[in-house]
Structure formats: C-alpha cells, structure tokens
Amino acid sequence: MFKKNLITAAFMAAAIALGTLATSPPAQASAQVYNPCAKLSHGQTKFSGFGANRVTFATATDRNSNVLTITGCRRSGSGYVQEWQDWGYGGLRGFSPQNQAWEDTYRTPTGSFSFTEALGRRNPGTTLRYHTVNTMSRWGGERGATYNQYFEGAGGPSDENLWKYMNEGYYEQAAVINYNRLPDARTVQGASFAIFFHAGRVPSAGCVSTSLSTVTRLLKTNRPGDRIIMGAVDDVFTPYSSNPFGAITARYARSGGPAGILGVPAGNETGGLVRGGAQQLFRNGAITWSSATGARITTGAIRSAWLRAGAQNGALGYPTTEEVRGLRSGGAAQSYQGGAVLWTAGTGAHPTSGAIRAAWLRAGGQNGYLGYPVSDEIKGLKNGGAYQTFQGGSIHWSAASGAHITKGAIRSAWGVKSYERGVLGYPTSDEIKGLKNGGAYQTFQGGAIHWSAATGAHPTTGAIRTKWAAAGSENGVLGYPTSSELTLTNGGKYQTFQGGAIYWTPATGAHISKGGIRSAWAQHGYERGPLGYPTTDEFGVPGGIRQNYQGGSILWSSFTGARSLIGGMATKYDATGGPVLGFPTEEQTAALNGGLIQYFQNGAIIMTPSKSYFVTTGKIRLAWVGQGAEKGKLGYPTSAIVTVPGGAEQTFAGGSIFLSSTGVTTVKYPVAPAPAVVPSAPASPEPTPTASAPA
C-alpha cells in the first residue's frame, strides 16, 4: 500500500539511518527463523497454513523491524519443504502486534492470509484471478462499495492509482494479500486496504515487497487459497508442536489464532486420550478432539467445571459444541457427550448430566422454574443417591426412585424431616398440582407431602397416611393435613387435618377423631385422659354415632350432643343393651360417698361407693329420685330391676320400690320390729311374822 502520501525510498532510508521515525518497543527481539517450512511441518506456527499447497513466510526479528526474510514452502506428504528464500521489506514501522493494521499506521498486519487475486502489467501465467493494469485501474481507498477492491474508473483522493505505481516499478507484478477482505474476513471500512505482495523492494505503508523475480515465481506457482504467514518471529512461531493438517490446528486457526480467544499455544498437541482423543493447551483454554465429537474449544469457568467433573474421562465426556452465550440472564452453556456445563455471573459454572439433567430438562432447563444449577452434582447420599441444587429447587436421584424435583414449601417440609435420610426417603414423583382448592402434593418412598395455601405443606406417612387415604385424602372429610405427625405417650402418634385428626398406637391402630365426638374427647384430656386412645372410627348406631376408646366410648345424637361413657359406665351400658337407656344426656357426675351417676334419655346408671353398677329406669327411677335418690332414705340401689309377682321391683340399701303391673309404684321401707317385752321380776314375798322371844 503506497497511498497518496507515499514515502519515497530515499527519504525512508535516511529516516531509518537518523532514527527520526517513531517506533514502539519490540515485544521481544529474536533471531530470524530461516527454516519456517520445518516449523510449519511440526505445527510450530501460531498461525495456520490451513493445509494450503504453498505457504509463504514473511518474518522480521521484532515488530519494529521492516526488514523481512521471505520463504516459499511447498506441501510434501505430511509436511512442507522449502522452495526458495529471499529478503524484502514490510511496512515502514514494522508489524502490527494484534493482527490489526488500521490506516495510516504504516504497519504490516500479522497473521495468515490467503491469495486469490493478482495484478500487474501482464499475466505471467498465474491461476490467481488476474487484473491487467491499465490507465483506469484503481484500488479502492475511499469509503464505500469499492473499498479494498479492484475497480476501474477515475477514483477519489484515497484510491490508489495502480497504473502510476506499476510504471514506477512497484506494481509491475503483485499478489493481493486478503487482509480485511473476503474470503478471509468481512471488509471493515478504515481498517487498511491495498496490502499487496509486490515487486520494487522498498518499505511501504503496509505491503510486503521483494524482488520482481520472487513475486513472479510466487504468481506462477501459487493457486487460489495458498497463503502467506507474516509477522515478527515471536508472534509467528511457537516452541509447541501440533499436527499442521489436523483438526485441532484448523480449529485454532478459525478461532483467530493467537489473537483469538485462546491466545498463544501453551503445550504440544497430545494424543492417547480416552477413546483415541487428542488435546492441545493454550494460554486461555484448550482444544479437545475426538473422532465422535470433532475439535472443540473449552475456556474459562465452563472449562474449569468440566475439569472438576473429570474432563473427557468423567461423566460429561468430550465437548460436542462450542460455548453458547446469550442465554437467559446473560448465561452461557457448553454441551458434552454426557451433559452440559452452564454458567451465569450469579451462579458460576456447574455441570448437569445423567438422570438429574434429564429431570431438569423436563422442567424447562434454565428457562424453567428451576433456573440454573448452583452446585455440581453431589454424590454419596443414602443408598448411593445423588442430588444437585438449582436456583429454584433441587433434584434428588437414587437407583430405586429415579430423579425427581423438590422445590418450595414441599421441599422445605421434606427438609424438616431430614430429606432422604428421614422417614420419607427419596422423592418418587415430581410435584403434582391441580388438587382441591389449588393444592399440590409430592410422593416419597415413605409417604407424601401435601400443600395448600390455607394449610401449608405437611407430610403424611405410615398407618396415619393409609388411614387418611382410605378416608379420601384431601378430598375426604378430613381435608388437608395441618401439622406433621407428632409423638404422644405410650408410643402413640397423631396428626391434625382441616377436619380433625388421626391417632395411632401399636395397640389400637390408626383411627380418625373429628367433630363433636372429638370435642367431647378433648374435654377429657384426649389420650391422656381416662378414655385413652380411640379403638374405632366413628360408626353409626340407631339414632346417632358412637366411637369407642380404650377406656370407654363417646356417643352422639342430634338431641343430646356428644357425651362420654367411661370405664364401668360403658361396660354397664353395653351389658344392659344401650338402646334401652338411649343416649347419655350428661357426663357422669359424682354422687354421695364417692359414688357416680350418669343420666340417659331413658334412665341412669349408678355406681355405688363399693363400685357396683346398677341401672334404674322408668317409674322406679322417678320414684327413687322423688325419695332423694342416693341421698334419701332408700340410698344406693342394691339390685337391678327384677320381675316379681304382680310387677317389678328394685331393691335399695334402705328399702325397695315396687312397680305394679298397673303402673303404680310403691316405696317400701323395712317395718321396724315391735319392742321386746321383758317380764319384770316377781316381788319377793313378805316374810311371815314370827313371835318374838320374851324379854
């Protein structure tokens, strides 16, 4: 590139000699490499030759030097051999260090570029597309459609006049270096133009120049797609080797080489990996290859997570894609044979694989309610299980249960029960919604957890859960659980529900407690009171409902409400045939001298101080009450009502009551015996007078 303000060779020579041209410090000054073809054969170049038939090198000892060694290499078998070597000049100020040569820098771009076009006075026999220069030949420097392209026309101030420079000896023959142009790259306006390999050996604004004979030789031998690698020695060559025709080298070249994401090589290409794979390390990552997956780049946090998981030897295997960015919340991901690694700034990078990954994908992956993983998969759980946490919950897996998601309130309730270590064990389903009143539930090896907005989340297990299920679960009379299972005395357990509770002991089994009967039981202290635990559910009896307990029963009717029968009262009630007495109308109450009495619709049961139980009914009971009940002269009953001639009778401590067949009651008290007549002692007979003796 000469441009409108061309610096003449004489002026440049003088400026270099006097040291008046501004320069930048070299990255590193190194000895010139005179065997670049051998370097290329061993994959010791940072820029790829892309397997071209011919590769030309143009290298300087450092970035600020414009004196170049130029070497032509031809592909031969599995390497390259040298065809020729010459010298020449690059840009006046040397090479650009970043594979980038903007206009007016007077630097030659560093990198690997193809040849596809040429120009000059006459075609020397090249197979490159050839432009025979005429008076109207221009190379576009003006911004627009012709920028960095050959065209014919008047041109503008920045367009190069090819006819003029050809006649001055510079473009007698020239090959176009495809910098900042297709097919190597999209053309960027203002990023330099007219970078040629041309005759007229002289420093320029960015071209490579050498002898006319060398340029002509290159044109005659090079085919479209052959390349030139140019730059400072340390920017072009590396001590690390790779296969110059291999997939890893090709992928590195497509990534931008040393100016790309990977930076410079940091190790040799090494084979012998699992399943015949290969890998090469670079400053910022690696390229890993297998026949099944091809060559893939791994870098940064995602690569670190892959290495933690065992790299290609682990569950993930080889990468199958490059890193994909622009995911939800600014995330990134890379896929592998056995899963993927996902990253966000907030969560870091974590792999997902196997059954846990499959469950996560069913939930929508990172776009679903679980979001991104926030941990790696953690193994070594109970029974060989594993789990992984995500932004919105976690996934647990075991061989017996499979992989299932837990989240929200249900997950919290499971955590209270010690997760998989507790009574519930591992989840056996995901959360299932659509229950009554908008509820949800999830099943586990040892039970389930149900949730509703009104009750929160609570587990059900064992016999209590079985009983609840038999009663219709949340759709039944009990509704949703309102507590977890709680421990009681004597090894008992209970759990509350919206409509009641279920109690269980090894001796009694599981039984439901609800409604008015439950309220009556509560008045006696639940299982701590004299009734103890329920031994049945509620069951129907004529006119009402009954529930039995260890220490008695509770009966309910719409007329009497719920009343309890405790101990001997219950036993006596059942022994006499409950329907005879009807439902209790009140609780048992204390009677005289430690006795008890309980009234029913049709009578009463009395416990005497000696703990004997007797039933009184009908007119006999009324008569007894009329006499003051146990506090009256009759006192406590001493017999049941028995049939006697002419009616029925019941005896009491102080008498009896007789009920005639005509319905007349007679209270009988014992007749007091007549006082015993004690005969008085007979009077002593008066003594018979006797004559007294004479004085």
Automatic annotation (TrEMBL):
The organism of origin for this protein: Pseudarthrobacter chlorophenolicus (strain ATCC 700700 / DSM 12829 / CIP 107037 / JCM 12360 / KCTC 9906 / NCIMB 13794 / A6) (Arthrobacter chlorophenolicus)
Entry-linked InterPro entries: LGFP
Signal peptide residues on this chain, from the entry's feature table: 1-29
Pfam families with a match to the protein in the record: LGFP
Protein name per the record: LGFP repeat protein
Keywords assigned: Plasmid, Signal
The UniProt record lists the keyword Transmembrane helix: no
